[in-house]
């Protein structure tokens, strides 16, 4: 068996397949329902075991992206990305920790496409673009300290937390395309803001309760979540005040990644 126990990550990847459509503009709850549950959103789950060798053990998994039968897996230290095929066999890996121009202290965010890997480096001063063999093709210097990154329809989109701004990069320059009122208490929150669902790119700013659709460099509002004490909680966030435990649970939608 060639030591299979040592070849597979102890933490397998578990993905939830969503019903179609997952989110619609006119989402309605039945007369007897007052909330969404996991059973009303997810149809089934599947597990992929990741094959590893002694030279590249993932340990904890910090984040995952999926595109066309390829998984990109960020390790728990946020310093390396490994690519696996749909059977869990490792195809390539990238670990560029250091202080050079093509290196980073850590990885803030990343995205995977049919032929590219986009890595937002920490400190947030550059984006590394690599092919699926993890060969670096380009290093893109960025003008702002973005914390979140996604690629969609030929554009890079990035989130700037201190101003709650959304930027688009068309291959030549960055342009602010959407902005909301700052919430100082959540400037450095770690939750995601971009969600690829059913072939669409959705956006919800940190602390936000409105879901937007991004397409062709434009942002359209889909719907807004409401929850108890929303006004009071938003006021506390604007005043940079800490939230209580129950308030943190209510604050915003926590959508799961489906890439």
List the helices and strands and how they pair.
Blueprint: H1 4-7, E1 13-18, H2 38-41, E2 42-48, E3 61-67, E4 70-75, E5 80-85, E6 90-95, E7 106-112, E8 117-122, E9 126-130, E10 136-141, E11 148-152, E12 155-160, E13 165-169, E14 174-179, E15 194-197, E16 200-203, E17 210-215, E18 218-224, H3 230-238, H4 245-250
Antiparallel strand pairs: 1-2, 3-4, 4-5, 5-6, 7-8, 8-9, 9-10, 11-12, 12-13, 13-14, 15-16, 16-17, 17-18
Spatial separation of the terminal alpha carbons: 33 Å
Percent strand: 35-45%
Percent of residues in helices comes to under 10%
Which parts are unreliable, with pLDDT below 50 for 5 consecutive residues or more?
1-11, 15-34, 252-259
Instruction: Characterize the biggest β-sheet.
Output: 4 strands, antiparallel
Order of helices and strands: HEHEEEEEEEEEEEEEEEEEHH
Radius of gyration: 19 Å
Describe the global form.
globular
Strand order of the largest sheet: 3-4-5-6
Task: Give the count of helical stretches.
Answer: 4
Mean of residue pLDDT values: 76
Pairing-aware structural class of the strands and helices?
A: mainly beta
Structure description:
The chain has 259 residues and is mostly beta strands. It is 9% helix and 41% strand. It is built from four helices and 18 strands. The chain has helices spanning 4-7, 38-41, 230-238, 245-250, and strands spanning 13-18, 42-48, 61-67, 70-75, 80-85, 90-95, 106-112, 117-122, 126-130, 136-141, 148-152, 155-160, 165-169, 174-179, 194-197, 200-203, 210-215, 218-224. The strands form five sheets. The chain has a four-stranded antiparallel beta sheet with strand order 3-4-5-6, with no helix packed on it. A hairpin with a 4-residue loop joins strand 13 and strand 14 (174-179). The two termini are 33 Å apart. The model is unreliable at 1-11, 15-34 and 252-259 (pLDDT under 50).
């Amino acid at each position: 068996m060639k030591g299979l126990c040592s070849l597979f990550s102890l933490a397998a990847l578990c993905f939830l397949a969503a019903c179609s459509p997952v989110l619609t503009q006119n989402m309605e709850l039945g007369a007897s329902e007052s909330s969404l549950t996991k059973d009303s959103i997810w149809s089934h789950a599947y597990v992929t075991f990741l094959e590893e060798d002694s030279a590249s053990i993932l340990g904890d998994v910090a984040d995952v992206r999926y595109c066309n039968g390829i998984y990109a897996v960020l390790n728990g230290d946020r310093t390396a990305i490994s690519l696996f095929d749909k059977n869990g066999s490792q195809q390539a890996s990238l670990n560029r920790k250091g202080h050079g121009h093509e290196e980073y202290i850590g990885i803030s965010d990343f995205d995977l496409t049919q032929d590219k890997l986009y890595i937002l480096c920490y400190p947030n001063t550059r984006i590394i673009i690599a092919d699926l063999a993890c060969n670096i093709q380009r290093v893109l210097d960025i003008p702002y300290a973005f914390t979140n990154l996604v690629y969609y329809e030929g554009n890079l989109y990035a989130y700037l937390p201190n101003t709650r701004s959304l930027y688009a990069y068309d291959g030549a320059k960055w342009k602010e395309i959407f902005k909301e009122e700052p919430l100082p208490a959540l400037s450095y929150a770690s939750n995601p803001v971009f969600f690829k669902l059913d072939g669409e790119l959705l956006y919800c700013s940190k602390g936000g309760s409105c879901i937007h659709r991004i397409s062709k460099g434009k942002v359209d509002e889909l719907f807004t979540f409401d929850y108890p004490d929303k006004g009071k909680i938003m006021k506390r966030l604007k005043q940079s005040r800490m939230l209580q435990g129950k308030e943190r649970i209510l604050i915003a939608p926590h959508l799961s990644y489906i890439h």
